[in-house]
Amino acid sequence: MSQHYYSQQPEVRHDRRTIDTVLRGKSFRFTSDAGVFSKGDIDYGSRVLIEAMIIPDGSAVLDVGCGYGPIGISAAYLAPKGQVLMIDINSRAVELARENAQHNGIRNVTVMESDVLGALNEQQKFDVILTNPPIRAGKAVVHQVFEEAYDHLNEGGFLWIVIQKKQGAPSAVAKLESLFSEVEEVGKDKGYRIIKAQK
Predict the structure, then answer these.
(1) Coil, strand, or helix at residue 21?
(2) Quick one: which of 8, 62, 103, 168 is 20 to 30 A from 111 by CA?
């Protein structure tokens, strides 16, 4: 099997690099590496989601497929009294996300390895779940993310996703509408759609 960023143990050689960027008006420095999603720079879809997402302070937040951490770390910055759990199947990404949270002085995060939401216990619930879903893993995995996110949201909680129209936004919206009481497109930019779904 070829190595994808959603592989559990990437075997490609390390190629660490530093990304200096500004997200939500704050300067961040991230370290990325070969074998993780969007290693060269924070991908455009994640940026669009970060700029659009609303994270009420004090929220319990989950970042599904966190990669090296830009979405979850930004959420933790926006909600300093909240708590953010960041999960990814990729062990290299998990290590980088921990390192990046620490380097950027973000303390209200926990990072753990998880295949989709499988490592969470049934009682863990969140006010906000964020994901730039792993499109290349296939529609079944993306829909599994939506189903498991629904199960782990508090009543009234929100799932925020970013997805490109050409990568299946219509079918993603249809799936979300089968699960959630309210599904709304709240932004679009260069073919990326930001979808907010409320439980």
Answers:
(1) strand
(2) 168
Q: CA torsion angle for 93, 95, 98, 101 (degrees, to 10)?
A: -50
Domain containing 174 — which CATH number? Answer: 3.40.50.150
pLDDT digits (tens, 9 = 90+) for 92-117: 999 999 999 999 999 999 999 999 99
Q: How far apart are CA 103 and CA 120, in angstroms?
A: 26
């979808």: which residue's tokens?
Answer: 195
Kind of pairing, strands 109-113 and 126-131? unpaired
Report if residue 39 sits inside a domain: yes
Count: domains in the chain: 1
Sequence-separated (6 or more) residues with CB below 8 Å from residue 87: 62, 63, 64, 65, 66, 94, 111, 112, 113, 114, 117, 119, 120
Q: Kindly state whether residue 166 falls inside one of the protein's structural domains.
A: yes
Using one digit for the tens of pLDDT, what is the confidence trace for 121-172? 989 999 999 999 988 788 899 999 999 999 999 999 999 999 998 887 889 9
- What domain range is 154 assigned to? 16-198
Q: Is residue 7 part of a domain?
A: no
